[in-house]
Amino acid sequence: MEKIIDSLQSLGPWGVFLIAVLDSSFLSIPEINDIIVVTNVANRPREILFWPLITTAGSVVGCLMLYSVARKGGQVFLHRWFSASRVRTIEKVFAQYGSLAIIIPALCPPPTPFKSFVATAGALQFPVRQFVMTVALARAVRYFAMGLLAVFFGEQVETFIKEHSLLVVLIIVVVVLIAFVAYRLFEARIEAGSKASDSPPASLMSNSIEGGPDVL
């Protein structure tokens, strides 16, 4: 496997793209995408936008491949590759949290079982467009954040994440939940404002009642 990875990396950006596709679909190469982003950006800080973008694109394509296979295979595919208890747990998470069931695992570093969430999304017929947009957003945030950290701290970022993976996961979960709650509150305020603007003023209602026709 190492020889294959080295051969692909020697191809430059296209090789990195293919590695991201393979890692996000049917192969498991733990932390390889993070390592590639951190290494390349640390050595070439001016390319901070380029390497995360290539890696994100490859990851989205790979996730979409796994999603499509699971969408066709349904529950049979899920139970062939994952335990029944894990499938039940992830299905409950999707039923309760929707897109968050994809966002949080996509942001978290290994050993988060992201592929099981991707496959479950396909088996549950999660909307394709929403799935692609959600994965793209979460992966872009993750890899661009890794690139930004690599600019300031170099390749030591990867070591820190390996040694404090639980802390990193907890921070990500807290940040996402805060953002989700803030979004929900903002959405509720917008809906309340639109309902208030749609309803006629109370003074207009009283005038229309007082000026109405007399009933004999």
Itemize the secondary structure elements and their pairings.
Blueprint: H1 2-9, H2 13-24, H3 32-43, H4 50-81, H5 84-97, H6 100-107, H7 114-123, H8 128-153, H9 156-163, H10 165-198, H11 202-210
Helix pairs in contact: 1-2, 2-4, 3-8, 4-7, 4-8, 5-7, 6-7, 6-8, 6-10
Please, could you describe this protein's structure?
By secondary structure, the chain is mostly helical. Helix content is 80%, strand content 0%. It is built from eleven helices and no strands. The protein has helices spanning 2-9, 13-24, 32-43, 50-81, 84-97, 100-107, 114-123, 128-153, 156-163, 165-198, 202-210. Helix 1 (2-9) crosses helix 2. The radius of gyration is 24 Å and the shape is globular. The relative contact order is 0.11. The model has no long low-confidence stretch (mean pLDDT 79).
Features:
single chain, 216 residues, mainly alpha, 11 helices
Structural class assignment? mainly alpha
Radius of gyration: 24 Å
Which geometry do the CA atoms define? globular
Mean pLDDT: 79
SSE series: HHHHHHHHHHH
Distance between the termini: 93 Å
Biggest β-sheet description: none
How many β-strand stretches? 0
| Helix-residue proportion | over 70%
Short description:
The chain is mostly helical and about 220 residues long.
